[in-house]
What we know:
With about 475 residues, the protein is of the alpha/beta class. Helices cover about 25% and strands about 15% of the residues. The strands form two sheets. The chain has a six-stranded parallel β-sheet with strand order 3-2-1-4-5-6, sandwiched between helices. Strands 9-8-7-10-11-12 form a six-stranded parallel β-sheet, sandwiched between helices. Helix 9 crosses helix 12 (about 380-385). The chain starts with 11 loop residues before the first helix and ends in a 12-residue tail after the last helix.
Amino acid sequence: MASTSLLPHSVSPFLSNPSSIPSTPFPKHLFLFTPLDQQKPIFPKRPNFHTRAKKKNPWLDPFDNGDDPEMEYGSLFADGKQDEDPRPPDNPDNPYGFLKFPMGYSVEIASLALKVRGDVRRCCCVVSGGVYENLLFFPVIQLIKDRYPGVQVDVLASDRGKQTYELNKNVRWADAYDPDDDFPEPREYTDMIGILKGRYYDMALSTKLAGLGHAAFLFMTTARDRVSYVYPNVNAAGAGLMLSETFTPDSTNLSEGGYNMYHQMVDWLGKPFRSVPRQEVLPLKVSISRKLKEVVKAKYTQAGAEKGKYVVIHGIKSDSKASMQSRGDTDSLLPIELWAKISEGISARPVFVIPHEKERENVEEVIEDASIVFITTPGQLAALINDSLGVIATNTAAIQLANAREKPCIALFGSEEKGELFVPNAEEKKCKIISSKTGKLIDIEVEAVKKGMQIFDVSLALA
Length: 463
């Protein structure tokens, strides 16, 4: 009796009558300090959160319901666009610049809004595809420059895609690295990660469909914001864990979206943010240097053409990568025999662009006294189009370059749907779309092409 009186009063009656414990599947020690009349299930149901706000990334935090709509912003460091970089100017005598400190250093110069507001001082764009896909990415780069004043934009693209950025003044550095290579060399892979990591990017954008492997590549760059497209199937499993924002396209071929193939990324980049309205997307524009113009002028002058008095013919069938096709339209080249019939209706001098020197003999056999220009880079093609009277081309980069330089253009497509997809608002761009009625480009009507040449405002000699 003396031993039992030392026990706490709240516990002694509970232990003195073991038969009063209910038979439950839970361990008995869970109810040692809970009165019988207050016992409840130990696993309560989770509360249901219903909201219309888009989650930033459901892989990272399933309970992140977005920004609080009742939160009031308006402080100096959280309102409006970012300011220009306040760092001193670069030292021209130093090849590495002046006071370009890594993130975390020189805090007396860095703006507080860099952390509070999420400013972007350095942005890396990993662009998948060739010349066509990189050319259509130009409006996205312009959107980034307008949305984040003072941002430095770098690009990572394939060897062919890198050539496009000699037409873009908004890009600081363009590095050659093929993001579409599923099995890169280990030394190239690790070296590129080290280069990107050493540049301390605030944002990394990628147009390659990311799985776990590509998401890990972006994660190892240590960029603060990692934004990328992901596969629309099971190959995207695990990629969201390493990305800050993901976009799921309609198909595994992003180029099938045509001119607006990056509309999901554009919508996210230009979204309104607090007091910043939605950023408008400008049309495609390219810049041509004086050196390019001089080199190309010497080429077409040697071929017998004069400035402003020739029409560019682009889209001759060839197996060369310099054809500048789109991955979303593989049926976009015509044989030289069909081009010869089309060129008969041009009163101005046609200039045939060949992507490889081996095509020169084929053109000379079919067309006598033909003006042939060998061009493989998009910069030289843009300079050739800039000095021309107009362009007749299939669905290659020549169409987009003609629209960017506001030159009259006749675009040949295999179907009307693809024409509207790759050249929206064609009438406003001085572009005449002619499509095949059978769905195959080879069956396009030559007479319809000749009638469309009235867009060049020249006297036609129709055959």
